[in-house]
Amino acid sequence: MKKTVLVTGADGFIGSHLTEYLVAQGYKVRAFVYYNSFNSRGWLDTIDEKVKAEIEFFAGDIRDPNGVRTAMEGIEEVYHLAALIAIPYSYHSPDSYVDTNIKGTLNVLQAARQLNTQRVLVTSTSEVYGTAQYVPIDEKHPFQGQSPYSATKIGADRLAESFYRSFDLPVTIVRPFNTYGPRQSARAIIPTIISQLLAGVEEIRLGDLRPTRDLVYVQDTVRGFHAIAKSAKTIGEEINIATQQEISMGELAQQLIQLINPQARIVQEQERLRPEKSEVFRLLGANEKIKQLTGWQPEWGLEKGLEETVGWFREKGKGSGYRADQFVV
Ligand SMILES: Cc1cn([C@H]2C[C@H](O)[C@@H](COP(=O)(O)OP(=O)(O)O[C@H]3O[C@H](C)C(=O)[C@H](O)[C@H]3O)O2)c(=O)[nH]c1=O
């Protein structure tokens, strides 16, 4: 009989790819979906019918302890991805980030404790490290809460550790670096640039061109999650998912310009949504630990990943709310 696992945030960007990947690996997935978006189940509505047959939808709210507990009944393995993820909006509404990211994670941990869940993966982020104090950033790098978003992820990350130490809950904290690929929301850098270029915009407006990121293709990220869940050696650990390569935002934009419209040029915007001290200037992750504990390694180079992403946006990105004039930094 197929094992059923729970994915929270299953209709989000990484969550939907993870759900499909887990189905391909022979699991049934209980997909915890925000009740408010239940009738338009996001990307999960667009996937193959055969895959959908292996998915059981559960409409709830991660902030509701009873709903989370009910969703987790009978489940041995939980991938907790539900979160508010946009950094700029966290400046305006930090309390909603506390509720969803910290309280939501606490609800999952409490339910796992009550139900004796065998395996819990809590999704943290490279943002917990803030601007690199040394590179590559390993899992022992100090935390710096440079935005309310990252502060709430640090809170959730530490709560997860505390449940491992206090109650021996079999938790692993997963810290993916910047994931990109098909279906990513337009508020992130790569979809923003691609959608502008595809719409024929010739002046690509960006914030600061210098910050660097370690960009992980979404298929590598979801393989990383699964590899971590499969290995007993990862219990109680914090684990980066990173390529150990970095690229500046200026270089990234140039690469996309070359792929889509070499006539276009970058215009640096003075107006910023991220205060200077809040901007994370350098993220380059170490991936030794995940390699050592699970054998995972990245399979997608940036060139191939960007080509695939651009291809998806050309084909399917249209009509899905992407706007050429969107600009967020
Ligand atoms: C959207 C946009 C971004 N930027 C700059 C701001 C950053 O220096 C960089 C990357 O921004 P992006 O929003 O794509 O990603 P991060 O701010 O690194 O955060 C993302 O990756 C981490 C891991 C998470 O944990 C966050 O949830 C996720 O949102 O490009 C611009 O200059 N212009 C733009 O239009």
C-alpha-based Rg, rounded = 19 Å
Q: Please summarize the sheet with the most strands.
A: 7 strands, parallel
Query: CATH superfamily of the largest domain, please?
Result: NAD(P)-binding Rossmann-like Domain
| Helix-strand makeup class | alpha/beta
What is the share of helical residues? 25-40%
Low-pLDDT runs: 319-329
Number of strands: 13
CATH topology of the largest domain: Rossmann fold
Number of domains: 2
Shape: globular
**What percent of residues are in strands?**
15-25%
Topology:
Layout: E1 4-8, H1 13-24, E2 28-34, H2 49-52, E3 55-60, H3 65-72, E4 77-80, H4 87-92, H5 94-115, E5 119-123, H6 148-167, E6 171-176, E7 179-180, H7 189-198, E8 203-206, E9 212-213, E10 216-217, H8 218-230, E11 238-241, E12 247-248, H9 249-260, E13 265-268, H10 288-294, H11 302-315
Parallel strand pairs: 1-2, 1-4, 2-3, 4-5, 5-6, 6-11, 7-10, 8-13
Antiparallel strand pairs: 9-12
Helix pairs in contact: 1-8, 3-5, 5-6, 7-9, 9-11
The chain binds dTDP-4-keto-6-deoxyglucose.
Enzyme class: lyase
EC number: 4.2.1.46
Pfam family, one: GDP_Man_Dehyd
